[in-house]
Amino acid sequence: MADIIDGKAFAASLRASIAAEVAALSFQPGLAVVLVGDDPASKVYVANKARQTVEVGMRSFEHRLPAETTQATLLALVQSLNADAAVHGILVQLPLPRHLDADAIIAAISPAKDVDGLTVTNAGLLANGLPGLVPCTPLGCILLLHDRLGGMTGLNAVVIGRSNLVGKPIAQLLLQQNCTVTIAHSKTRDLPTLCRGADILIAAVGRPEMIKGDWIKPGATVIDVGINRVPAAAPGKTKLVGDVAFAEAAGVAGIITPVPGGVGPMTIACLLRNTLTAAKRIESRATLVSEV
Ligand SMILES: NC(=O)C1=CN([C@@H]2O[C@H](COP(=O)(O)OP(=O)(O)OC[C@H]3O[C@@H](n4cnc5c(N)ncnc54)[C@H](OP(=O)(O)O)[C@@H]3O)[C@@H](O)[C@H]2O)C=CC1
Ligand SMILES: Nc1nc(=O)c2c([nH]1)NC[C@@H]1CN(c3ccc(C(=O)N[C@@H](CCC(=O)O)C(=O)O)cc3)C=[N+]21
Hints:
Elements: E1 3-4, H1 7-23, E2 30-36, H2 40-55, E3 59-65, H3 71-83, E4 89-92, H4 102-108, H5 120-127, H6 136-149, E5 156-160, H7 167-176, E6 180-184, H8 191-196, E7 200-203, E8 221-224, E9 228-231, E10 238-241, H9 246-250, E11 255-256, H10 263-291
Helix pairs in contact: 1-10, 2-10, 6-7, 6-10
5,10-Methenyltetrahydrofolate binds near residues 116, 165 and 260.
Protein backbone atom coordinates (compact mmCIF):
# COMPACT_ATOMS: atom_id res chain seq x y z
CA MET A 1 0.00 0.00 0.00
CA ALA A 2 1.38 3.39 -1.03
CA ASP A 3 2.27 6.17 1.34
CA ILE A 4 -0.55 8.74 1.01
CA ILE A 5 0.56 12.37 0.94
CA ASP A 6 -1.44 14.63 3.26
CA GLY A 7 -1.71 17.74 1.09
CA LYS A 8 -4.15 19.33 3.49
CA ALA A 9 -1.68 19.25 6.39
CA PHE A 10 1.24 20.38 4.21
CA ALA A 11 -0.85 23.27 2.88
CA ALA A 12 -1.93 24.27 6.39
CA SER A 13 1.68 24.58 7.53
CA LEU A 14 2.52 26.58 4.41
CA ARG A 15 -0.39 28.94 5.13
CA ALA A 16 0.74 29.35 8.74
CA SER A 17 4.16 30.55 7.58
CA ILE A 18 2.52 32.90 5.05
CA ALA A 19 0.23 34.31 7.78
CA ALA A 20 3.25 34.99 10.00
CA GLU A 21 4.97 36.88 7.17
CA VAL A 22 1.83 38.87 6.35
CA ALA A 23 1.41 39.88 10.00
CA ALA A 24 4.88 41.45 9.95
CA LEU A 25 4.19 43.59 6.83
CA SER A 26 3.38 47.29 7.00
CA PHE A 27 0.59 46.86 4.42
CA GLN A 28 -2.11 44.30 3.64
CA PRO A 29 -1.73 42.18 0.48
CA GLY A 30 -4.92 41.93 -1.61
CA LEU A 31 -6.05 39.17 -3.99
CA ALA A 32 -8.78 39.66 -6.60
CA VAL A 33 -10.55 36.62 -8.05
CA VAL A 34 -12.77 36.84 -11.12
CA LEU A 35 -15.28 34.07 -11.83
CA VAL A 36 -17.38 34.25 -15.00
CA GLY A 37 -20.26 31.77 -15.12
CA ASP A 38 -20.16 28.62 -13.02
CA ASP A 39 -17.61 25.98 -14.07
CA PRO A 40 -17.90 23.26 -11.37
CA ALA A 41 -14.14 22.85 -10.64
CA SER A 42 -13.82 26.62 -10.43
CA LYS A 43 -16.65 26.84 -7.91
CA VAL A 44 -14.87 24.44 -5.52
CA TYR A 45 -11.75 26.54 -5.87
CA VAL A 46 -13.40 29.93 -5.33
CA ALA A 47 -15.29 28.83 -2.22
CA ASN A 48 -12.15 27.53 -0.45
CA LYS A 49 -9.98 30.39 -1.62
CA ALA A 50 -11.88 33.38 -0.28
CA ARG A 51 -11.94 31.99 3.27
CA GLN A 52 -8.26 31.06 3.34
CA THR A 53 -7.19 34.42 1.90
CA VAL A 54 -8.81 36.21 4.84
CA GLU A 55 -7.41 33.64 7.31
CA VAL A 56 -3.80 34.47 6.36
CA GLY A 57 -4.52 38.19 6.85
CA MET A 58 -4.95 39.26 3.22
CA ARG A 59 -7.85 41.10 1.62
CA SER A 60 -10.06 39.09 -0.74
CA PHE A 61 -11.90 40.81 -3.59
CA GLU A 62 -14.39 38.55 -5.36
CA HIS A 63 -15.94 39.41 -8.71
CA ARG A 64 -18.67 36.99 -9.82
CA LEU A 65 -19.94 37.83 -13.29
CA PRO A 66 -22.77 36.18 -15.25
CA ALA A 67 -21.92 33.66 -17.99
CA GLU A 68 -23.09 36.13 -20.66
CA THR A 69 -20.54 38.84 -19.66
CA THR A 70 -18.94 40.51 -22.70
CA GLN A 71 -15.25 40.63 -23.58
CA ALA A 72 -15.28 44.43 -23.18
CA THR A 73 -16.77 44.27 -19.66
CA LEU A 74 -14.25 41.64 -18.53
CA LEU A 75 -11.31 43.54 -20.08
CA ALA A 76 -12.42 46.73 -18.32
CA LEU A 77 -12.58 44.86 -14.99
CA VAL A 78 -9.05 43.47 -15.44
CA GLN A 79 -7.77 46.95 -16.30
CA SER A 80 -9.37 48.44 -13.21
CA LEU A 81 -7.79 45.71 -11.05
CA ASN A 82 -4.38 46.42 -12.67
CA ALA A 83 -4.76 50.05 -11.60
CA ASP A 84 -6.08 49.32 -8.08
CA ALA A 85 -3.28 49.79 -5.49
CA ALA A 86 -5.12 47.57 -2.96
CA VAL A 87 -4.92 44.62 -5.38
CA HIS A 88 -1.56 42.80 -5.61
CA GLY A 89 -2.79 39.57 -7.22
CA ILE A 90 -5.33 38.97 -10.00
CA LEU A 91 -6.73 35.55 -10.85
CA VAL A 92 -9.25 35.01 -13.64
CA GLN A 93 -10.81 31.57 -13.27
CA LEU A 94 -10.47 29.24 -16.27
CA PRO A 95 -12.09 27.95 -18.35
CA LEU A 96 -13.97 31.08 -19.42
CA PRO A 97 -17.28 30.71 -21.27
CA ARG A 98 -16.63 29.91 -24.94
CA HIS A 99 -17.67 33.28 -26.37
CA LEU A 100 -14.81 34.97 -24.48
CA ASP A 101 -11.21 35.17 -25.73
CA ALA A 102 -9.21 33.87 -22.74
CA ASP A 103 -5.82 34.64 -24.35
CA ALA A 104 -6.73 38.31 -24.74
CA ILE A 105 -7.99 38.52 -21.16
CA ILE A 106 -4.84 36.90 -19.77
CA ALA A 107 -2.67 39.20 -21.88
CA ALA A 108 -4.38 42.18 -20.24
CA ILE A 109 -3.31 41.13 -16.72
CA SER A 110 -0.30 43.04 -15.42
CA PRO A 111 2.56 40.47 -15.20
CA ALA A 112 3.45 41.86 -11.74
CA LYS A 113 -0.04 40.88 -10.48
CA ASP A 114 -0.32 37.62 -12.47
CA VAL A 115 -0.42 35.23 -9.49
CA ASP A 116 -1.52 32.37 -11.79
CA GLY A 117 1.70 32.73 -13.80
CA LEU A 118 -0.26 32.62 -17.06
CA THR A 119 0.96 35.71 -18.90
CA VAL A 120 3.50 35.26 -21.67
CA THR A 121 5.97 37.20 -19.51
CA ASN A 122 5.76 34.81 -16.55
CA ALA A 123 5.60 31.69 -18.74
CA GLY A 124 8.72 32.91 -20.58
CA LEU A 125 10.56 33.65 -17.34
CA LEU A 126 9.77 30.11 -16.12
CA ALA A 127 10.90 28.54 -19.41
CA ASN A 128 14.19 30.45 -19.15
CA GLY A 129 14.69 29.59 -15.47
CA LEU A 130 14.37 33.23 -14.37
CA PRO A 131 12.44 34.50 -11.33
CA GLY A 132 8.79 35.35 -12.03
CA LEU A 133 5.41 34.12 -10.79
CA VAL A 134 5.06 30.33 -11.18
CA PRO A 135 1.57 28.76 -11.68
CA CYS A 136 0.16 27.65 -8.32
CA THR A 137 -0.72 24.00 -8.99
CA PRO A 138 2.66 23.16 -10.55
CA LEU A 139 4.41 24.92 -7.66
CA GLY A 140 2.33 22.92 -5.18
CA CYS A 141 3.20 19.64 -6.92
CA ILE A 142 6.92 20.40 -6.84
CA LEU A 143 6.81 21.36 -3.15
CA LEU A 144 5.14 17.99 -2.36
CA LEU A 145 7.64 16.06 -4.51
CA HIS A 146 10.58 17.89 -3.01
CA ASP A 147 9.34 17.18 0.51
CA ARG A 148 8.99 13.44 -0.21
CA LEU A 149 11.79 12.69 -2.64
CA GLY A 150 14.37 15.38 -1.96
CA GLY A 151 16.39 15.28 -5.19
CA MET A 152 14.75 14.14 -8.42
CA THR A 153 17.85 14.07 -10.63
CA GLY A 154 17.67 11.50 -13.43
CA LEU A 155 14.15 10.27 -12.60
CA ASN A 156 11.74 9.63 -15.49
CA ALA A 157 8.74 11.95 -15.15
CA VAL A 158 5.61 11.60 -17.28
CA VAL A 159 3.14 14.49 -17.25
CA ILE A 160 -0.28 13.74 -18.73
CA GLY A 161 -1.80 17.03 -19.91
CA ARG A 162 -0.26 20.02 -21.71
CA SER A 163 -2.31 23.03 -20.61
CA ASN A 164 -0.61 26.37 -20.01
CA LEU A 165 -2.08 26.32 -16.49
CA VAL A 166 -0.90 22.89 -15.32
CA GLY A 167 0.82 20.42 -17.69
CA LYS A 168 3.39 22.68 -19.39
CA PRO A 169 4.59 24.53 -16.28
CA ILE A 170 4.83 21.27 -14.28
CA ALA A 171 7.03 19.89 -17.04
CA GLN A 172 9.24 23.01 -16.85
CA LEU A 173 9.65 22.65 -13.10
CA LEU A 174 10.47 18.92 -13.34
CA LEU A 175 13.06 19.72 -15.99
CA GLN A 176 14.61 22.29 -13.61
CA GLN A 177 14.80 19.43 -11.07
CA ASN A 178 16.83 17.40 -13.63
CA CYS A 179 14.08 14.88 -14.38
CA THR A 180 13.82 13.35 -17.85
CA VAL A 181 10.40 14.70 -18.81
CA THR A 182 7.79 13.36 -21.22
CA ILE A 183 4.59 15.32 -21.83
CA ALA A 184 1.60 13.22 -22.90
CA HIS A 185 -1.76 14.45 -24.25
CA SER A 186 -4.90 13.30 -26.06
CA LYS A 187 -2.94 12.34 -29.21
CA THR A 188 -0.30 10.28 -27.37
CA ARG A 189 -0.04 6.65 -28.54
CA ASP A 190 -0.15 3.81 -26.03
CA LEU A 191 -0.37 5.93 -22.91
CA PRO A 192 -0.45 2.94 -20.49
CA THR A 193 2.98 1.71 -21.68
CA LEU A 194 4.42 5.22 -21.50
CA CYS A 195 3.12 5.64 -17.95
CA ARG A 196 4.66 2.32 -16.84
CA GLY A 197 8.11 3.85 -17.44
CA ALA A 198 7.46 6.75 -15.06
CA ASP A 199 9.19 7.10 -11.70
CA ILE A 200 7.06 10.24 -11.24
CA LEU A 201 3.60 10.27 -12.85
CA ILE A 202 1.59 13.49 -12.90
CA ALA A 203 -2.04 13.34 -14.07
CA ALA A 204 -3.61 16.66 -15.16
CA VAL A 205 -6.29 15.57 -17.61
CA GLY A 206 -9.77 16.18 -16.21
CA ARG A 207 -11.07 12.62 -16.81
CA PRO A 208 -12.37 10.79 -13.74
CA GLU A 209 -10.21 7.79 -12.74
CA MET A 210 -8.73 7.38 -16.24
CA ILE A 211 -5.30 6.19 -15.01
CA LYS A 212 -5.55 2.59 -13.87
CA GLY A 213 -3.46 0.64 -11.35
CA ASP A 214 -1.72 -1.42 -14.05
CA TRP A 215 -0.45 1.77 -15.78
CA ILE A 216 1.75 2.48 -12.76
CA LYS A 217 5.32 1.33 -12.20
CA PRO A 218 5.57 -0.42 -8.82
CA GLY A 219 6.91 2.03 -6.24
CA ALA A 220 6.36 5.13 -8.43
CA THR A 221 5.30 8.51 -7.08
CA VAL A 222 1.84 9.51 -8.41
CA ILE A 223 0.55 13.08 -8.24
CA ASP A 224 -3.13 13.42 -9.13
CA VAL A 225 -4.08 16.96 -10.15
CA GLY A 226 -7.54 16.10 -11.53
CA ILE A 227 -10.64 17.53 -9.87
CA ASN A 228 -13.72 15.80 -11.24
CA ARG A 229 -17.21 15.91 -9.78
CA VAL A 230 -19.05 12.61 -10.32
CA PRO A 231 -22.31 11.08 -9.00
CA ALA A 232 -21.91 9.46 -5.56
CA ALA A 233 -23.56 6.23 -4.38
CA ALA A 234 -26.38 8.10 -2.63
CA PRO A 235 -28.99 9.36 -5.11
CA GLY A 236 -28.66 13.05 -6.00
CA LYS A 237 -25.26 13.35 -4.29
CA THR A 238 -21.88 14.02 -5.94
CA LYS A 239 -18.27 13.51 -4.89
CA LEU A 240 -14.81 14.63 -6.07
CA VAL A 241 -12.46 12.14 -7.72
CA GLY A 242 -9.11 12.60 -9.40
CA ASP A 243 -7.78 11.45 -12.78
CA VAL A 244 -6.26 8.37 -11.12
CA ALA A 245 -8.24 5.28 -10.03
CA PHE A 246 -7.04 5.80 -6.48
CA ALA A 247 -7.86 2.43 -4.83
CA GLU A 248 -6.09 0.45 -7.61
CA ALA A 249 -3.19 2.85 -7.93
CA ALA A 250 -2.51 2.97 -4.19
CA GLY A 251 -1.86 -0.78 -4.30
CA VAL A 252 1.01 -0.31 -6.78
CA ALA A 253 2.50 3.17 -6.24
CA GLY A 254 5.09 3.98 -3.59
CA ILE A 255 3.70 7.44 -2.86
CA ILE A 256 0.37 8.92 -4.01
CA THR A 257 -1.76 12.03 -3.52
CA PRO A 258 -5.49 11.63 -2.77
CA VAL A 259 -8.39 13.67 -4.19
CA PRO A 260 -9.63 15.57 -2.26
CA GLY A 261 -6.88 16.43 0.21
CA GLY A 262 -3.88 16.26 -2.12
CA VAL A 263 -2.90 18.85 -4.71
CA GLY A 264 -6.05 21.02 -4.33
CA PRO A 265 -5.19 22.52 -0.94
CA MET A 266 -1.59 23.07 -2.11
CA THR A 267 -2.86 25.11 -5.08
CA ILE A 268 -4.59 27.56 -2.76
CA ALA A 269 -1.62 27.78 -0.39
CA CYS A 270 0.66 28.51 -3.37
CA LEU A 271 -1.77 31.14 -4.65
CA LEU A 272 -1.46 32.92 -1.31
CA ARG A 273 2.31 32.53 -1.46
CA ASN A 274 2.37 34.05 -4.96
CA THR A 275 0.16 36.91 -3.78
CA LEU A 276 2.61 37.60 -0.94
CA THR A 277 5.55 37.47 -3.38
CA ALA A 278 3.80 39.83 -5.82
CA ALA A 279 2.75 42.21 -3.03
CA LYS A 280 6.27 42.48 -1.63
CA ARG A 281 7.74 43.15 -5.08
CA ILE A 282 5.10 45.76 -5.97
CA GLU A 283 5.33 47.57 -2.63
CA SER A 284 9.14 47.62 -2.59
CA ARG A 285 9.11 49.13 -6.07
CA ALA A 286 6.58 51.74 -4.92
CA THR A 287 8.85 52.62 -1.98
CA LEU A 288 11.88 53.01 -4.26
CA VAL A 289 9.92 55.36 -6.52
CA SER A 290 8.67 57.48 -3.62
CA GLU A 291 12.23 57.84 -2.30
CA VAL A 292 13.65 59.38 -5.48
N1 LIG B 1 -5.99 20.31 -8.06
C1 LIG B 1 -5.90 21.55 -8.51
O1 LIG B 1 -5.50 22.43 -7.80
C2 LIG B 1 -6.24 21.87 -9.92
C3 LIG B 1 -6.92 20.94 -10.63
N2 LIG B 1 -7.20 21.16 -11.94
C4 LIG B 1 -7.84 20.04 -12.62
O2 LIG B 1 -6.83 19.37 -13.38
C5 LIG B 1 -7.39 18.84 -14.57
C6 LIG B 1 -6.64 19.41 -15.77
O3 LIG B 1 -6.78 20.81 -15.81
P1 LIG B 1 -6.30 21.68 -17.07
O4 LIG B 1 -4.88 21.37 -17.37
O5 LIG B 1 -6.70 23.05 -16.77
O6 LIG B 1 -7.26 21.04 -18.20
P2 LIG B 1 -7.28 21.19 -19.78
O7 LIG B 1 -8.62 20.68 -20.18
O8 LIG B 1 -6.84 22.53 -20.18
O9 LIG B 1 -6.16 20.16 -20.28
C7 LIG B 1 -6.34 18.78 -20.23
C8 LIG B 1 -5.20 18.07 -20.91
O10 LIG B 1 -5.46 16.66 -20.85
C9 LIG B 1 -5.24 16.10 -22.13
N3 LIG B 1 -6.15 14.95 -22.34
C10 LIG B 1 -7.50 14.97 -22.47
N4 LIG B 1 -7.95 13.74 -22.64
C11 LIG B 1 -6.88 12.92 -22.66
C12 LIG B 1 -6.71 11.51 -22.82
N5 LIG B 1 -7.75 10.70 -23.01
N6 LIG B 1 -5.47 11.01 -22.76
C13 LIG B 1 -4.40 11.82 -22.57
N7 LIG B 1 -4.50 13.15 -22.39
C14 LIG B 1 -5.74 13.68 -22.45
C15 LIG B 1 -5.55 17.20 -23.13
O11 LIG B 1 -4.86 16.91 -24.32
P3 LIG B 1 -4.93 17.87 -25.64
O12 LIG B 1 -4.05 19.02 -25.32
O13 LIG B 1 -4.42 17.01 -26.72
O14 LIG B 1 -6.37 18.25 -25.78
C16 LIG B 1 -5.02 18.43 -22.39
O15 LIG B 1 -3.65 18.65 -22.66
C17 LIG B 1 -8.88 19.20 -14.48
O16 LIG B 1 -9.54 18.13 -13.84
C18 LIG B 1 -8.91 20.41 -13.58
O17 LIG B 1 -10.14 20.58 -12.92
C19 LIG B 1 -6.79 22.28 -12.58
C20 LIG B 1 -6.12 23.26 -11.91
C21 LIG B 1 -5.83 23.13 -10.52
N1 LIG C 1 -7.08 30.52 -13.48
C1 LIG C 1 -7.29 29.40 -12.84
N2 LIG C 1 -6.36 28.93 -11.98
C2 LIG C 1 -6.57 27.76 -11.31
O1 LIG C 1 -5.69 27.32 -10.55
C3 LIG C 1 -7.81 27.06 -11.50
C4 LIG C 1 -8.73 27.61 -12.40
N3 LIG C 1 -8.44 28.76 -13.05
N4 LIG C 1 -9.90 26.99 -12.64
C5 LIG C 1 -10.31 25.82 -11.90
C6 LIG C 1 -9.13 25.00 -11.48
C7 LIG C 1 -9.47 24.04 -10.36
N5 LIG C 1 -8.70 24.47 -9.24
C8 LIG C 1 -8.82 23.97 -7.93
C9 LIG C 1 -8.00 24.40 -6.90
C10 LIG C 1 -8.16 23.93 -5.61
C11 LIG C 1 -9.15 23.04 -5.33
C12 LIG C 1 -9.32 22.55 -3.93
O2 LIG C 1 -9.21 23.29 -2.98
N6 LIG C 1 -9.59 21.27 -3.76
C13 LIG C 1 -9.84 20.71 -2.46
C14 LIG C 1 -11.34 20.73 -2.31
C15 LIG C 1 -12.03 19.77 -1.48
C16 LIG C 1 -13.52 20.02 -1.39
O3 LIG C 1 -13.94 21.17 -1.31
O4 LIG C 1 -14.23 19.01 -1.35
C17 LIG C 1 -9.18 19.34 -2.43
O5 LIG C 1 -8.83 18.82 -3.52
O6 LIG C 1 -8.97 18.81 -1.35
C18 LIG C 1 -9.98 22.59 -6.33
C19 LIG C 1 -9.82 23.05 -7.62
C20 LIG C 1 -7.95 25.56 -9.60
N7 LIG C 1 -8.13 25.89 -10.85
